[in-house]
Amino acid sequence: xxxxxxxGGTGVISAHCTSGLLGLGHQVTLLHRGTARVSAVRSxxxxxxxxxxxxxxxxxxxxxxxxxxxxxxxxxxxxQATDLAAALNRACRQLVLx
Length: 98
Description:
Strand order of the largest sheet: 3-2-1-4-5
Shape: globular
Number of strands: 5
């Protein structure tokens, strides 16, 4: 199964997405600011506390998790999309902006 990094993973939609991915056997990591609870999501995932506007932190999280898929629920501007694109690694096969 795939290594999946979910950015902004504490919202209602992303929590359901995370649960579904875990149910399918994927390895899921949630990147979040740490300002919301992640307990709404079932167990079995890793977390990284990082503000997605922190370019170095975002690049470090992507490098550390080496995701094959990135799903970004917190990309709201061109500069955020540009930062994400700059941080992508070779392993990432799919990028989904929600």
